[in-house]
Specification:
With about 375 residues, the chain is α/β, with parallel strands linked by helices. It has two domains: about 120 residues, Aspartate Aminotransferase, domain 1 (Alpha-Beta Complex), CATH 3.90.1150; about 240 residues, 3-Layer(aba) Sandwich (Aspartate Aminotransferase, domain 2). The chain is about 40% helix and about 15% strand. It contains twelve helices and 14 strands.
Length: about 375
């Protein structure tokens, strides 16, 4: 039987995730594995915690990595902080904020949504107005809306949430590692992300951080967290206990990769990493506009790592993406929900955020669109 691995293409990943993996991370993934209760593995976990605190802008003790994708991080955050009947406000301006609201409903929250147009940022004054009623225990929103390419002003909403007595939950799946993040300064109580976007590691891990207030809520529930695997009270005994207590068999080699990816960010420097993302984004936009293409999002609100491009009238979305993948070995993403067939989503995340990758994509698009 043929080994299918040998026939896989070497694809330039410029979609909404995953991103291209640095060679140093591939080497780390290939190291000999360690047991999940090995003392050296615990040292590595501590190193991951230290790096995540730096990238997230937090001193939270409860800063760990969930063994699961970003969706697991989303569910871990909600399942620990929601009890049946809790009133929650979710600010929605895209697919992933709507998913956050749906997941919260399934966990028993009484969810109200505050809706804004897809492709536009949320309006903080409207959110503050809704919070001022004091009716909500939790506020949830997305920092970098992956479905639209919009950056939301999360830095403005921590203080009003705190005044209203609401825990502030932030989805940083696409933003962490590519945009400035100051979780403590901005009053964020719980934040979740993923490993495969701006951090530059394969999919499969979800960094999270919980403030003292959030952990107090998780520990003081009237009933235990209904998901054993994602229970932060139990996970902290594994990540921070003395002695460490077994919780699950952590995927050691994935943690090796995450540790190395975070080390690369630290070596380059947070501001240098963000600058590289901005410059790649600006190079892409200039090239696209030079071809007569337009962006969905207005300039002040665009994400550097997730670019949404309006598909010209008469151009077949699927045909372009198919040719990019089949002929040029480049992956970009399609639109979701109301934007399906209307936009392309071009990711410049982590190791993919380079001008030479942008030039490769622009050259391929010119050839295809010329026809």
């Amino acid at each position: 039987m043929a080994n299918l691995l040998e026939s896989l293409d070497d694809v330039l990943l410029l979609g909404p995730g995953p991103s291209t993996i640095p060679p140093e991370v591939y080497r780390a993934l290939g190291r000999r594995t360690l047991g999940h209760m090995d003392s050296q593995f615990f040292e590595l976990m501590d190193g991951i915690k230290e790096s995540l605190r730096l990238v997230m802008g937090t001193a939270n003790r409860a800063t760990i990595t969930i063994s699961g994708t970003g969706t697991a991080g989303m569910e871990a955050t909600l399942v620990n902080l929601i009890e049946a009947g809790d009133p929650m406000l979710v600010v929605v301006n895209g697919f992933f904020a709507a998913r956050l609201a749906e997941m919260a409903r399934r966990l028993g929250a009484v969810v109200d949504t505050l809706e804004f147009p897809w492709g536009k940022p949320i309006e903080t004054k409207e959110v503050e107005k809704r919070l001022s009623s004091g009716a909500y225990k939790i506020l949830g929103m997305v920092h970098a809306e992956t479905s639209t390419g919009v950056k939301n002003p999360i830095q403005d909403l921590g203080p009003p949430a705190r005044r209203a007595g609401a825990l502030f939950i932030v989805d940083a799946v696409t933003s962490l590692g590519g945009l400035e993040m100051r979780a403590d300064e901005w009053g964020i109580d719980a934040l979740y992300s993923c490993s495969q976007k701006c951090i530059g590691c394969p999919a499969g891990l979800s960094p999270v951080t919980f403030s003292e207030g959030a952990m107090k809520k998780a520990a003081g529930r009237s009933a235990p967290v209904p998901n054993y695997y994602l229970d932060m009270n139990l996970l902290m005994k594994y990540w921070d206990g003395s002695p460490r207590a077994y919780h699950h068999t952590a995927p050691a080699n994935m943690y090796f990769g995450l540790y190395q990816a975070l080390q690369l960010i630290r070596e380059e420097g947070l501001e240098a990493v963000r600058k590289r993302h901005r410059e790649a984004h600006e190079h892409l936009v200039a090239g696209l506009e030079g071809m007569g293409l337009s962006m969905l999002v207005e300039k002040p609100h665009r994400l550097p790592m997730l670019n949404t491009v309006l598909i010209p009238e008469g151009v077949d979305d699927a045909a372009v993406r198919k040719e990019l993948r089949a002929v040029h070995k480049i992956e970009i993403g399609s639109g979701l929900g109301a934007l399906a067939g209307k936009i392309w989503r071009i990711g410049l995340m982590g190791y993919s955020a380079k001008k030479e990758n942008v030039d490769t994509l622009l050259g391929a698009l010119r050839k295809i669109l010329r026809r």
